[in-house]
Specification:
five-stranded antiparallel beta sheet, 2 domains, 11 strands, single chain, about 35% helix, Dna Ligase, domain 1, alpha+beta, D-amino Acid Aminotransferase, Chain A, domain 1, about 280 residues, six-stranded antiparallel beta sheet
Length: about 280
């Protein structure tokens, strides 16, 4: 029910979810991904079966009226409560603890990885939950919260819009936390001006950039030469690092043979890849 990143590839979406499958692929390809493991969809399905939750969840889903926002909120709370009220089974707790012992550090990122996530036609960015700086004692609780986030209102709406069934499965990743000096996102093809790579970065963790809660520094780099053609500076970041980030992005795009939307972090001039998915807006 647990797989290390080194044991999975991009073909393993059904067991690892989109996000973790991509990180496993990048790990195997030699990119610098923070070490981690994935609690597979088998664990989620086993939890649902052992606790006999399937009928309850199906019944609630049937009653959702997508046009009644108030009711969607109510059903979301009910569905999430069904999952978080139960105890995780002992066998899984033991496997998680064994996998944790293989990781370094005492703070971790716990991230959702749904089976419908990070597809060519739909990016589930921000629809399910991520927890940062999680201590070991809180990891089990946050894994359950990630499972429950399948039923966040925004995830329900998004699946409806993309005609994706609500009975998708959830895997959860646990990764060593990178205490980043700077972090951000990169589009290996700028969605508007296609000959550029767009890099957006800020000091600290990248979640602020991803969520749009701050205005990052923005760099347009010529895709061929990696020279910075345009920039808008809100945070002072070493431009040599920005060029290295873009160079790494080109390699990842080349590996996937498709333009990528990439999340990264930088610690002591070392670049870590936190996520890569196809750009869905081209």
């Amino acid at each position: 029910m647990i797989k290390l990143f080194s044991q999975i590839t991009k073909e393993d979406i059904e067991i690892a979810g989109g996000k973790a499958a991509n990180l496993g692929e990048l790990t195997k390809a030699g990119f610098n991904v923070p070490s981690g493991f994935v609690i597979t969809t088998k664990a989620y399905k086993t939890f649902i079966e052992l606790k006999e939750l399937e009928a309850d969840i199906s019944e609630q889903i049937k009653q959702i009226d997508i046009d009644d926002h108030e009711k969607v909120e109510i059903f979301s709370k009910e569905l999430k409560k069904i999952i978080t009220d139960e105890e995780i089974f002992e066998e899984l707790i033991e496997e998680i603890n064994q996998a944790l012992n293989k990781l370094k550090g005492n703070k971790f990122a716990v991230r959702s990885s749904a089976t419908a996530e990070d597809m060519i036609t739909a990016s589930f960015a921000g629809q399910q939950d991520t927890y940062l700086n999680v201590e070991k004692k809180d990891i089990i609780k946050q894994i359950q919260n990630c499972w429950a986030s399948l039923f966040n209102p925004r995830a329900i709406y998004y699946r409806h819009e993309k005609k994706i069934p609500h009975d998708v499965s959830m895997a959860v990743m646990v990764q060593e936390m990178v205490d980043a000096d700077s972090a951000g996102v990169m589009f290996t093809v700028d969605p508007v001006r296609k000959k550029y790579i767009l890099v957006e970065a800020a000091h600290g963790l990248g979640e602020q950039v991803v969520s749009g809660s701050i205005t990052p520094s923005s760099y347009m780099l010529d895709k061929e030469t990696l020279e910075i053609a345009e920039k808008s500076i809100n945070f002072e970041i070493d431009e040599d690092i920005i060029k290295e980030i873009a160079k790494t992005g080109k390699k990842i795009e080349s590996h996937y043979k498709k333009p990528q939307d990439i999340e990264f972090a930088v610690k002591e001039k070392k670049i870590y890849i936190l996520q890569s998915r196809p750009i869905t807006t081209l």
